[in-house]
Input
Amino acid sequence: MLDALPPQLAERVQGLPVAYTELARSYRAAHSTRTGTKPAKRNIRLHAEVAIAVNRQMVSDKRMLKLRDLKPSQYLDAAITLARHISVADLIKAADEFRDSRLGEASGSASPNHYSIRRENDAWLDEMMDELLLANTTGLHGHMVNVIVQSFLEQLRAEATTAG
Output
């Protein structure tokens, strides 16, 4: 699994679980200079709590992995990559629960931000919007992205605790 990463980057995530390997792949893709690999820019509104959690995790990982130029976009990209195998029904259920648990909150979504993600993840998000429309669950797309990112962060923390 690590053979796709450059040796120096692979060494930094060696022994760490899958979520960190995917984060390293996203980091590498973001820094790729190959023609045709330019990431897509996606306007995403994270819930304030999720945006803060991404920043906290990123600062911790910058120190642990010694990657000073790690960016929030790479967390979103890695999270989406790992979520692509999850069934639409499970994503809808999780997005519904995420939305319901935050109904009536005074603080909600942070300002929208543009995140750079791999083109295949951007295309998958477009497909998910269609799937949500077909399931008659419009309005859940943003909640779905938030729950995907939140779950990824929980996986990083749980895996880091297990590995450490």
Remarks:
- The first helix runs from residue 7 to 13.
- DSSP finds seven helices and two strands in the chain.
